[in-house]
Write a sequence for this structure.
């Protein structure tokens, strides 16, 4: 009998179990459905962290498994957020306009739209609804755009880049350029997405005014946990079968896979587009919890941080990405939130708000140099797994291929 | 003699005869005047018109000023003083140039300029001509100033004429050209005469000749003179358009119906169109029992129902008739439209238009040249920022994301040096080598500690150096704060090299261009002519082969990396001179620098040069197409680069064969 999916991926069951326990635990400790030990803002932070874990899985698929260091996935994340944010903002403003309409006559559709446009675009000095907002009134259409816009963008970009055999660091720089171009474009006031003001008030869900933020935050936590669980399953399914072997082959030695007759570009393109869509879905769940989105979120640096999370967690294994994203983003929130106690060195007091970035940067360098397996390496240590002894021979000549210390026998 | 004068003055100063007689005996009379046989020149004119001069009116003073102007010596000084409110009339009616002293006035005789003693305050009434009169005096003065023996005064007069010359200045200016000896001032006078003729001249031929005389001159003043001639206004006519027509506008071809109707409304030839807001207001004012003209309010969210309601109200006579679409079309069709020149003379406007065409053409060429200079300076900035990368990334294949922070480090070094050395020239001269030293050391340290272990792992290098970049940036913030620090250029770099009114380039940009050239030279020299360059090239191509030839690859890699970082430091000083020195200075350039290297072609300095030129030109070109939006320019530039990489993945100048490395 062929081994089943779960027996090939023992981590999946453990992961789903931990996720379920975590979600239930937070629910029973939340203000809305339980004892109230965990504040609403903390629930939101946890929900956002789950979304970040989801995009980290996407990053691990494309970088850890396929060997493409994409510095553009946060752009897809942001695009997803923008797409859902447009509906949230439009529908919410529509409610406000309708409830505050003071005239004797009921509004014509044109007047209603003009009033909404003035409300939304007053800050950038415009009063007309740009063409990109033409579907903003419809939730299903915008939800479809969450998947379609980043998906098509990733497909076109990936098709162009992979077709002309741009690889390695060149591809990284190219994806970074794409992110920069996108965020610069969105920074303009006439981009139609409110320039650097971004979209705001996204935490208020239209039609759910009766539900308080405390309950909403738990609902979003459930949805995020569900998305993360499904994302993990999909990713585990992809990397466990023959497909997974091929993309790992591409990572370790692209030319050899090509000579074996596989369409390397097709595989890369599929993974690139799929991960872009996963990133977009994560973004669409993240920003309603964050409440605001602006182009600064999509700056190239965000995508690099994503790579940092995955590297610290341990690339090339899915739970590593999740652990890295959760660990680094939570610790980061703790340090930059001013809650970490100052460190008094006698001659100088280290304020973590100022020094956290330094610590993060340096620990990142150290992880890259000395612990390429990242935090997930601790699991190997616990299980007694050792890296293969190849005496320094490389696993593959490609830039993205695993190193001896990263692989597990 | 004294009595003669007294009698004359008394008889002429009709307004103050008694005062004159009363005060005359005490008046000290200047000796010179006493000796003059009779009143001549200025004194006579002043005496003759004393009344008007004392109480001038704008309407009647003209001939008097002209007479004074023609009166000979002393006239300009008198006019000048008069306009400056420095003329006083003594109780006996005589005029003097006055100067306030402690207890009265010091008097100067206007005709001779001689000291005329003093007078107590009570005896002098100051003349205070109003601004209209002062204007007339000033234009009369122009004639004298234009012929003043002092060239500086002549120039000053020309400058003031250039600012607010009028029709009345043309004649004096023409008269002043012939006896001008200084060729520069003569040319200035002739130019100004031409400009004034264009604007205010009376005869068509002279104006046309003046316009044509300038050819396609680039001066802003010429454009300032011609542009008002070409100002047009839109007019509607019932029949054929009249006046100096610039262009007849046909609805549907040149203007659309809306615009045509707007002209009619503006001229009062048609009633204004009913706007949506007005419609709504009218309906709201006529709500009766929850309905407007029988249509329930609840149904009025439909534009068609609103129109119906309004029409019903119109028929009931409750609201004014608004123009319907048919009426608008009919009204538009019943008229003809044209752009009319404000200037009535057709020959002049034709000549002006021709001249403007030539000027615009030439201005266009000059703007292109200016744009070229801008592009060149931007290219040299990118080149400077990228040249260090071209060494570390291009030659060694190491991605250094902290390159931007090395640029920042250089700029901060410059700032710190300026804290200690206040002379800007010296401080820059010290800062350049010091910045090199600091960043060289930083680069070598980083290479030894981190990069050395990752030579085979470019992606890991990217991430590790990025970690260093985050850390460095935050450290800069902690040390220097988030606000911008000043790095001041020496004063001889202030200002700009102005070729004409269109083309100019600031000295600082020229300096950066020169610096970029110097670095290109240094780089080429080091790589092609020195032992170090030879060893670097050898290690780049094949480290183990180089090692077996007795080269120490470790040392070479370290030095090469240090060199690249050091150049980044110097670039930082240069960039800091015109950009704000903040901790984010370098990261603003990092992506563009990578683009420059990648677009140009890795491993080749000429490629970097070509890449910088391409990106600089492109960015300036796009900015020129859409000047209000530099963000869009950067966006489109990056998009272009992404597409460009598709077609030339190895850059403009791609290495071939073994040197390409794969």
């Amino acid at each position: 009998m062929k081994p089943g999916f779960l027996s090939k991926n023992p981590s999946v069951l453990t992961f789903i179990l931990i996720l379920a326990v975590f979600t239930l635990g937070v629910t029973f400790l939340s203000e809305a459905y339980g004892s109230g030990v965990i504040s609403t803002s903390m629930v939101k932070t946890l929900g956002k962290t789950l979304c970040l874990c989801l995009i980290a899985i996407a990053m691990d698929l494309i970088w850890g498994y396929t060997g493409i260091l994409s510095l553009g996935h946060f752009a897809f994340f942001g695009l997803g957020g923008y797409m859902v944010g447009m509906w949230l903002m439009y529908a919410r403003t529509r409610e406000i306009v309708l409830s505050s309409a003071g005239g004797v006559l009921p509004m014509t559709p044109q007047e209603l739209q003009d009033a909404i446009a003035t409300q939304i675009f007053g800050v950038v000095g415009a009063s007309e609804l740009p063409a990109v907002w033409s579907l903003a009134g419809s939730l299903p259409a915008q939800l479809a755009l969450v998947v379609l816009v980043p998906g098509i963008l990733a497909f076109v970009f990936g098709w162009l880049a992979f077709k002309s055999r741009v690889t390695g660091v060149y591809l990284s720089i190219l994806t970074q350029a794409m992110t920069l171009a996108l965020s610069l474009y969105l920074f303009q006031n006439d981009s139609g997405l409110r320039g650097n003001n971004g979209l705001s008030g996204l935490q208020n869900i239209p039609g759910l005014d009766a539900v308080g933020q405390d309950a909403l935050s738990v609902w979003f936590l459930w949805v995020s946990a569900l998305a993360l669980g499904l994302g993990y399953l999909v990713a585990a399914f992809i990397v466990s079968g023959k497909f997974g072997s091929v993309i790992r082959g591409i990572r370790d030695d692209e030319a050899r896979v090509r000579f074996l007759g596989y369409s390397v570009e097709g595989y890369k393109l599929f993974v690139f587009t799929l991960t872009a869509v996963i990133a977009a879905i994560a973004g669409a769940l993240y920003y309603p919890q964050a409440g605001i989105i602006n182009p600064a979120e999509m700056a190239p640096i965000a995508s690099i941080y994503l790579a940092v999370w995955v590297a610290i967690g341990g690339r090339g294994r899915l739970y590593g990405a999740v652990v890295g994203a959760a660990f680094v983003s939570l610790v980061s929130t703790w340090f930059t939130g001013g809650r970490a106690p100052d460190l008094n060195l006698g001659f100088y007091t280290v304020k973590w708000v100022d020094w956290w970035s330094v610590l993060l940067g340096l620990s990142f360098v150290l992880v890259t140099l000395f612990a390429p397996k990242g935090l997930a390496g601790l699991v190997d240590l616990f299980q007694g797994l050792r890296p293969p002894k190849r005496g320094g021979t490389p696993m593959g000549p490609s830039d993205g291929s695993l190193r001896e210390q990263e692989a597990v026998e | 003699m004294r009595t003669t004068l007294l009698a004359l003055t008394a008889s002429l100063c009709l307004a103050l005869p008694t005062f004159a007689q009363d005060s005359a005996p005490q008046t000290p009379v200047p000796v010179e005047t006493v000796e003059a046989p009779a009143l001549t020149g200025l004194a006579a004119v002043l005496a003759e018109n004393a009344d008007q001069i004392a109480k001038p009116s704008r309407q009647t003073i003209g001939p008097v000023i002209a007479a004074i102007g023609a009166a000979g010596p002393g006239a300009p000084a008198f006019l000048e003083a008069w306009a400056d409110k420095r003329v006083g009339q003594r109780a006996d009616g005589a005029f003097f140039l006055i100067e306030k002293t402690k207890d009265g006035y010091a008097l100067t005789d206007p005709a001779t300029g001689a000291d005329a003693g003093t007078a107590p305050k009570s005896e002098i009434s100051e003349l205070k001509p109003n601004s209209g009169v002062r204007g007339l005096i000033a234009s009369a003065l122009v004639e004298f100033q234009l012929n003043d023996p002092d060239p500086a005064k002549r120039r000053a007069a020309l400058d003031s004429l250039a600012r607010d010359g009028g029709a009345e200045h043309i004649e004096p200016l023409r008269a002043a050209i012939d006896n001008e000896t200084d060729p520069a001032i003569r040319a200035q006078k002739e130019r100004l005469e031409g400009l004034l003729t264009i604007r205010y001249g009376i005869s068509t031929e002279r104006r046309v000749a003046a316009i044509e005389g300038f050819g396609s001159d680039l001066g802003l003043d010429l454009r300032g003179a011609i542009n008002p001639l070409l100002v047009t206004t839109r007019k509607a006519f019932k029949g054929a358009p009249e006046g100096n027509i610039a262009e007849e506008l046909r609805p549907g071809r040149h203007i659309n119906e809306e615009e045509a109707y707007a002209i009619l409304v503006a001229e009062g030839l048609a009633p204004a169109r009913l706007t949506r807001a007005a419609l709504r207001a009218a309906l709201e004012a006529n709500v009766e029992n929850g309905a407007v003209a029988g249509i329930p309010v609840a149904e009025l969210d439909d534009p068609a129902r609103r129109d119906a309601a309004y029409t019903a109200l119109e028929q009931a006579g409750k609201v004014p008739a608004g123009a319907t679409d048919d009426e608008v079309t009919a009204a538009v069709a019943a008229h003809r439209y044209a752009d009319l020149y404000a200037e009535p003379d057709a020959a002049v406007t034709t000549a002006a238009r021709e001249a403007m065409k030539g000027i615009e053409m030439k201005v266009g060429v000059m703007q292109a040249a200016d744009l070229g200079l801008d592009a060149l300076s931007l290219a040299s900035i990118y080149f400077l920022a990228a040249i260090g990368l071209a060494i570390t990334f291009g030659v060694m294949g190491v991605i250094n994301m902290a390159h931007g922070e090395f640029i920042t480090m250089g700029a901060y070094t410059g700032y710190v040096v300026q804290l200690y050395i206040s002379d800007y020239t010296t401080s820059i001269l010290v800062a350049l080598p010091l910045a090199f030293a600091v960043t060289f050391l930083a680069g070598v340290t980083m290479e030894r500690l981190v990069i050395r272990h990752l030579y085979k792992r470019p992606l890991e290098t990217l991430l590790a150096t990025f970690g260093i970049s985050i850390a460095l940036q935050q450290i800069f913030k902690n040390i220097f704060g988030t606000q911008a620090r000043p790095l001041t250029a020496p004063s001889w770099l202030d200002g700009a090299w102005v070729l004409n009114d269109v083309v100019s380039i600031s000295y600082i940009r020229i300096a950066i261009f020169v610096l970029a050239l110097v670095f290109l030279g240094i780089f080429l020299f080091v790589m092609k002519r020195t032992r170090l360059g030879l060893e670097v090239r050898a290690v780049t191509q094949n480290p183990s082969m180089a090692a077996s030839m007795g080269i120490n690859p470790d040392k070479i890699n370290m030095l090469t990396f240090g060199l690249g970082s050091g150049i980044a430091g110097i670039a930082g000083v240069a960039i800091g001179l015109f950009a704000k020195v903040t901790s984010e200075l370098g990261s603003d350039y990092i992506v563009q620098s990578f683009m420059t290297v990648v677009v140009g072609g890795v491993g080749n300095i000429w490629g970097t040069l070509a890449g910088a030129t391409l990106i600089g030109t492109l960015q300036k070109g796009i900015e020129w197409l859409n000047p209000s939006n530099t963000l869009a320019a950067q966006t489109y530039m990056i998009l272009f680069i992404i597409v460009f990489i598709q077609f030339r993945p190895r850059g403009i100048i791609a290495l071939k064969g073994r040197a390409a490395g794969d």
